[in-house]
């Protein structure tokens, strides 16, 4: 992971936000290559899910034909949106504070191990990444017991590393960076929404929130889409946009950030067909990742157990990836596919919903101020009718919703991790050297092709520049005439460019150029006027 992070900075994939001022934790900037990679991922998602969808036919595995459309909603919405959706009351993480260092940690992300020495048993914690976790735990344990490195064998470790939320006795916990044991507070809730002010007065009545998800913008526009288009259930509304969550301890590179971009679909269907549609979207979204190169044991689909489900969810599956910063055998969420039932549309009609004793959703009621015997909705809905009437059957119902929710930043990080590869290849002198290559699928590669004149004379640069201009009219391309051609190849390998085109002496005699494949290193010759077509069919 350290090598990948270094490459991302060196080659211009990712930079720490505001780095010249020391950076801002949980915020990242995409550099010249990173912005192209992320844009290509979003474009591939939009093309495959929305623009390129054939609503006239039945896709493989789908119960029937369906339509897709899109939205782009505002980041700041009416505060009532977040109250009826449950975010205002429930969108929280459990946190603990260290009374000694004044640091704050997310309860379920702090990891450690039980260790005994000098007749005392404590739980030592660390914030180190997976590769350095064992080393840092030993270092912290020695410090806790006031021992030297040579005394490491006297430490009696117990069980495997685990998260802090599985520990009952916080008085025995040695917090990261603390000098004393038992400095952590009891866990408490921390709302993850960023608060802001709308208007000039700056009073509490002007308070609003940066959206923590893009989904609610789709739900509150459900009726607008129905009234302004000819879509019929089943249909999906897609959106790509920024979301904000005030994470307690953002970590693991861009995996958990405070500002991130989501790619979400809210798919509306008849309740009687919702289970079939859930299974369809679950399988289709998994295939999308494998088609773009996330294949093998590092990518898994995990169905949520009953005790993991949200209070509104009928079923949820996570597409998970074995990110290299996680401990061996652990996976991080890449995308969630949730069967949300009719929770969201009903909430925006009626008010905030909760489960009653029978397990059914009902509006949460609270006593009226000054009249404890009377009840009112805790958070009122809009009162708008968001039901749907089938024009053929005349059936009226509140559609169920299937939500495939993906993070553009997490997807970008996963593709970066999957693409990183090292091998041994001879340099220009024939000596074996380590080659770093980013094996991106050609569809998402930041640069599709690079063009080199072998030397800067004999008309080669002019031919190369003409090819470059024709390529760049169709997709991202790069022109490079500096340095030995072998070093130019290596630079493009690190950028993930799938094809390099070299204009050489033979070009001047027979009008052909050499095309080199990034992964196989195979080279073949193509006529100059066929280069654009040759590259296009391989990367589009």
Please give a quick description of this structure:
The chain has 540 residues and is α+β, with helices and mostly antiparallel strands. It contains 14 helices and 31 strands. Helix content is 27%, strand content 30%.
Description:
This protein has 14 helices and 31 strands. It is α+β, with helices and mostly antiparallel strands and about 550 residues long. The strands form 10 sheets. A 7-stranded mixed sheet has the order 3-13-14-24-17-16-15. A 5-stranded mixed sheet has the order 28-27-29-30-31, sandwiched between helices. Strand 4 and strand 5 form a beta hairpin. Helix 2 packs across helix 10. The longest helix is centred in the N-terminal third of the chain and has 20 residues.
* Order of strands, widest sheet: 3-13-14-24-17-16-15
Structural class: alpha+beta
Number of strands: 31
Residues in β-strands, percent: 25-35%
Keywords:
alpha+beta; five-stranded mixed sheet; 31 strands; 540 residues; globular
Task: Draw up the topology in text.
Layout: H1 2-11, E1 14-16, E2 28-30, H2 32-51, E3 67-70, H3 79-84, H4 87-90, E4 92-97, E5 104-106, E6 111-117, E7 120-126, H5 130-144, E8 156-163, E9 173-174, E10 188-191, E11 195-197, E12 207-209, H6 215-220, H7 222-228, E13 235-244, E14 259-269, H8 274-291, E15 299-303, E16 315-321, E17 332-341, H9 343-350, E18 353-355, E19 361-363, E20 365-368, E21 371-377, E22 388-389, E23 396-397, E24 400-407, H10 408-419, E25 420-426, E26 432-438, E27 449-453, H11 460-472, E28 477-479, H12 485-495, E29 499-503, H13 505-510, E30 512-517, E31 523-527, H14 531-539
Parallel strand pairs: 3-13, 7-9, 27-28, 27-29
Antiparallel strand pairs: 1-2, 4-5, 4-10, 6-7, 6-8, 11-12, 13-14, 14-24, 15-16, 16-17, 17-24, 18-19, 20-21, 22-23, 25-26, 29-30, 30-31
Helix pairs in contact: 2-10
């Amino acid at each position: 992971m350290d090598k990948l992070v270094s490459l991302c900075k060196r080659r211009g994939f990712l930079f720490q936000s505001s780095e010249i001022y020391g950076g801002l934790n949980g915020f990242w900037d995409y550099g010249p290559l990173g912005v192209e990679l992320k844009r290509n991922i979003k474009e591939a998602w939009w093309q495959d899910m929305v623009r390129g969808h054939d609503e006239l036919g039945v896709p493989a595995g789908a119960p029937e034909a369906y339509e897709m459309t899109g939205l782009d909603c505002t980041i700041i919405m009416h505060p009532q949106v977040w109250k009826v959706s449950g975010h205002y009351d429930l969108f929280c993480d459990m946190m603990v504070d260290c009374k000694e260092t004044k640091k704050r940690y997310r309860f379920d992300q702090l990891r450690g191990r039980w260790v005994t020495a000098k007749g005392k048993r404590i739980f030592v914690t660390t914030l180190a990444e997976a590769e350095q976790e064992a080393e840092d735990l030993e270092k912290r344990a020695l410090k806790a017991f006031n021992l030297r490195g040579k005394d490491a064998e006297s430490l009696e470790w117990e069980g495997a590393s685990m998260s802090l939320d599985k520990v009952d006795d916080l008085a025995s916990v040695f917090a990261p960076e603390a000098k004393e044991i038992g400095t952590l507070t009891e866990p408490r809730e921390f709302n993850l929404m960023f608060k802001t002010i709308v208007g000039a007065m700056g009073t509490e009545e002007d308070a609003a929130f940066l959206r923590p998800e893009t989904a609610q913008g789709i739900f509150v526009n459900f009726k607008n889409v129905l009234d302004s288009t000819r879509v019929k259930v089943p249909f999906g509304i897609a959106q790509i946009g920024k979301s904000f969550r005030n994470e307690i301890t953002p970590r693991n590179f861009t995996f958990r950030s405070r500002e991130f971009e989501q790619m979400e679909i809210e798919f509306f269907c008849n309740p009687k067909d919702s289970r079939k549609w859930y299974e369809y979207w679950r399988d289709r979204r998994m295939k999308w990742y494998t088609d773009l190169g996330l294949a093998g044991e590092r990518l898994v689909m995990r169905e949520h157990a009953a005790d993991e489900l949200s209070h509104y969810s009928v079923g949820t599956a996570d597409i998970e990836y074995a990110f290299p910063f996680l401990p061996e055998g652990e996976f991080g969420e890449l995308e969630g596919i949730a069967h949300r039932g009719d929770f969201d549309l009903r909430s925006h009609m009626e008010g905030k919903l909760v489960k009653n004793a029978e397990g059914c959703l009902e509006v949460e009621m609270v006593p009226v101020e000054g009249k404890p015997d009377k009840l009112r909705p805790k958070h009122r809905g809009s009162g708008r009718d968001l039901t749907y009437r089938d024009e053929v059957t005349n059936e009226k119902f509140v559609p169920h919703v299937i939500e495939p929710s993906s993070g553009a930043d997490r997807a970008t990080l996963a593709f970066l991790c999957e693409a990183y590869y090292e091998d041994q290849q001879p340099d220009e002198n024939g000596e074996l050297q380590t080659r770093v290559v980013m094996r991106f699928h050609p569809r998402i590669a930041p640069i599709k092709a690079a063009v080199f004149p072998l030397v800067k004379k004999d008309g080669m640069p002019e031919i190369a520049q003409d090819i470059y201009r024709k390529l760049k009219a169709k997709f991202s391309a790069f022109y490079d005439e500096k340095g030995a051609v072998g070093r130019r190849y290596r630079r493009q390998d690190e950028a993930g460019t799938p094809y390099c085109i070299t204009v050489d002496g033979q070009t001047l005699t027979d009008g052909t150029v050499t095309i080199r494949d990034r992964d196989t290193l195979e080279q073949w010759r193509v006529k100059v006027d066929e280069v654009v077509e040759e590259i296009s069919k391989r990367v589009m």
